[in-house]
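This part of the workshop introduces the protein records we will be handling. Getting from the letters to the tokens is the skill we practise here. An example says more than a description, so a record of this kind follows:
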Amino acid sequence: MENLVHELWIVQAANALFGPLVRALLAPLGFTWEPGAEVIPDYIVMSVVIALLLVGAGLVLRSRLRVEQPGRIQVLVEEVVKGFNALLVDNIGPKGPRYLPLVGTLGLFIFTANMIGKVPGFMSPTASYNVTLGCTLIVWVYYHFEGVRAQGLGPYLKHFAAPPGVPLWIAPIMLPIEIISHLSRVLSLSLRLFGNVFGEELVVLIIASIVPFLVPLPMMVLGVITGTLQAFIFVLLTMIYLAGAVHLEHEHEDEASAHSPAHATI
């Protein structure tokens, strides 16, 4: 298994340039490394590379924005933004587009991270559990924060013990179930993304080590499809978690009354 793993040139370059500085900064905190060991892990280097690529692409695109006669890339980006906003409205409601910055950034980062591993000399940082766990924790903290901001601390905590439509007497049963459910989201969301990306890269490495050149290409094409799908699933689940957190209790009551027999039309 170790023979399948090789150091990336960009990771070696990053450690050669910034490794001594990072080592000097972390040494007072008790961090030690063996001689010749990489101070900056490959998944951190690749995550920084992707962040720089996205920021650079955003700056270039912003400088070329045109109200009249937009270019093809601008039209494509606008369609992507419209797609994100449509998904946010469908899953969260009219206020959904306010969450576009986080959802869109995570979606672009994960999609780029999944795709960059198909380029020779690079690897997908999402093939490391540290990266997928970091993305998941950002989502987990963010949707709880937005839930408290939208509902208030008291009503949001009450939502765990007695969700809308559930009688109060069942709160002692619902509270531990809800807590376990929310904690399990961290594992399910991070492991799903990590497992799919890591498994696909591992299969490609094994096939390439046995029969190189064109044979791994079908798996790489499949990896493009699964990588895109996994990024979409991550974004969609993020929207669903946000919807459950910011959906106010009176909105549930309005929906229930709208569907009650008293409001039915004859």
